[in-house]
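Tip: read the tokens left to right.
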């Protein structure tokens, strides 16, 4: 694997009295290459010789190369008048190797303005207000990465469509006796192009009482030409192809507060960040206005990649069967009746949207303390709301394969008539079906970092000819509190969990010396 980035930037800054101009022009180039060679031979002729030519029989041999390149030209103009009024304009063009040459380049721009209201004459009587700035911006960006909409089922390196999403691909793994054979595996779409994001932001920054820094910002991001896999009927010979077929909106609020509670010999600084975000798919240019992929659905009017699962009605205390709630609907989608069944085939044909991974809100809390030479900092992160489908937990109820481990919750399974439980009876060889009762609350609280340090006194530092000497101990990922032990909701926002390592808990100590 080889990747590198090449940057060329030219910056020019000039002031004319109360006017200040800053001009930036640049060129960026990113190149990523991944090459793989794999071969298997046997019957080595000489002991200790491990070169491929030293073996008599070739069992298999394969190789492939992926290349990804992005080239960009960019510019930016900043203008400052009286250190009160600010304007900013930017323009860039990006070319991506993921697209066919006629659709490779995209043009994107942005404009922003800010006003330091606190510098106006009518604000000078407010001694407690050190700074208040209003700001707004609008602009567009491009995205060529299809993986952010993937549910995690595709392998990043082995799937060529991640790098050449417009091309057809052929497989030569279908020989006819001694003759070679080629099989068309995917459809081309030369017209696929950049996904476009239009961003609007408006906010306020302030500094109050020489102690409190506060900012609030509203954002709305409209994504058009969504890069999605357009489904086709399997009878066509293909499941679909990549295309620009949708639009979605993300909007919400960001809040940031920092308070210097004590400023004397003992210093205490408190900080918190809080974010709300709401996501909605507003357009899909597909039949039925929805795309279903396993346990996920992309549907107009719903958050992207919402969970699409049968609704559990518990476990039958008489038989131990898993029960499902079926809602009957008319042609307009209105509910006309309900009934309960133990047939998964019926339940699978009547799936419902069961929420999404997107949290209600999330953020962080930080505290830092200083007293004489000692310092202590604590960082917590949290998220409230949203769901995760825990593949690992669910798989530990399956009896399809002999010798598999079970989750401890299997102990409370149904075993005899009259048992009231949420775990159905175990049947050898039974496939484990997903329902909404396997969705886990994704809320969590994480102790991300605690650091304790001590700066040696200046008298000691000067005596040993140093500028500064700090001794510290730090702990990362100290604890994670979530709904299910072993599940890490921080893992991703795709909505599912698999066999992945949780963040490592680390404890380290060191000395920071400046000469």
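Filled-in amino acids:
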């Amino acid at each position: 694997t080889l990747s590198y980035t090449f940057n060329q930037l030219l910056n020019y800054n000039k002031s004319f009295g109360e006017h200040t101009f800053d001009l930036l022009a640049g060129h960026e180039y990113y190149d990523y290459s991944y090459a793989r060679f794999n071969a298997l031979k046997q019957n080595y002729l000489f002991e200790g010789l491990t070169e491929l030519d030293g073996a008599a029989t070739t069992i298999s041999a394969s190789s492939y190369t992926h290349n990804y390149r992005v080239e960009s030209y960019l510019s930016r103009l900043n203008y400052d008048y009286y250190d009160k009024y600010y304007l900013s304009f930017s323009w860039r063009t990006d070319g991506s190797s993921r697209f066919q040459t006629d659709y490779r380049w995209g043009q994107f721009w942005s404009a922003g303005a800010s006003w330091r209201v606190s510098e106006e004459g009518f604000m000078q009587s407010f001694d407690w207000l050190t700074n208040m700035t209003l700001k707004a911006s609008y602009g567009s960006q491009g995205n060529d990465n299809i993986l952010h909409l993937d549910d995690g089922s595709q392998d990043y390196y082995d799937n060529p469509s991640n790098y050449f999403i417009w091309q057809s691909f052929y497989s030569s793994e279908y020989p006819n006796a001694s003759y070679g054979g080629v099989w068309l595996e995917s459809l081309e779409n030369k017209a696929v192009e950049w996904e476009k994001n239009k961003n609007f932001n408006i906010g306020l920054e302030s500094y109050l009482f020489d102690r409190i820094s506060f900012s609030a910002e509203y954002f709305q991001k409209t994504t058009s030409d969504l890069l999605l896999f357009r489904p086709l009927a399997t009878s066509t010979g293909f499941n679909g192809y990549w295309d620009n077929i949708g639009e979605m909106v993300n909007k919400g609020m960001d809040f940031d507060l920092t308070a210097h509670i004590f400023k004397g010999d003992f210093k205490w600084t408190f900080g918190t960040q809080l974010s709300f975000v709401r996501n909605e798919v507003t357009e899909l240019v597909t039949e039925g206005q929805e795309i279903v992929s396993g346990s996920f659905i992309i549907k107009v009017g719903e958050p992207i990649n919402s969970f699409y699962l049968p609704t559990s009605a518990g476990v039958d205390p008489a038989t131990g069967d898993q029960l499902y709630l079926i809602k009957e609907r008319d042609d307009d989608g209105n509910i006309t009746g309900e009934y309960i069944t133990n047939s998964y085939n019926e339940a699978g044909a009547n799936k419902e949207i069961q929420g999404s991974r997107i949290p209600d809100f999330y953020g962080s809390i930080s505290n830092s303390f200083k007293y004489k030479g000692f310092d202590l900092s604590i960082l917590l992160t949290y998220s409230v709301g949203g769901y995760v489908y825990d593949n690992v937990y669910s798989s530990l109820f399956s009896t399809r394969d002999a010798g598999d481990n079970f989750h401890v919750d299997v102990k409370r399974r149904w075993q005899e008539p009259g048992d009231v439980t949420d775990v159905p009876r175990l049947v050898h060889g039974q496939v484990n079906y997903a329902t909404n009762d396997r969705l886990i609350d994704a809320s969590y609280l994480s102790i991300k970092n605690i650091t304790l340090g001590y700066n040696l006194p200046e008298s000691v530092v000067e005596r040993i000819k140093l500028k500064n000497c700090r001794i510290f101990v730090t702990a990362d990922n100290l604890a994670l509190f979530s709904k299910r032990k072993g599940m890490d909701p921080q893992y991703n926002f795709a909505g599912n969990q698999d066999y992945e390592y949780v963040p490592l808990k680390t404890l380290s100590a060191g000395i920071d010396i400046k000469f």
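The longest strand covers residues 55-81. The longest helix spans residues 458-463.
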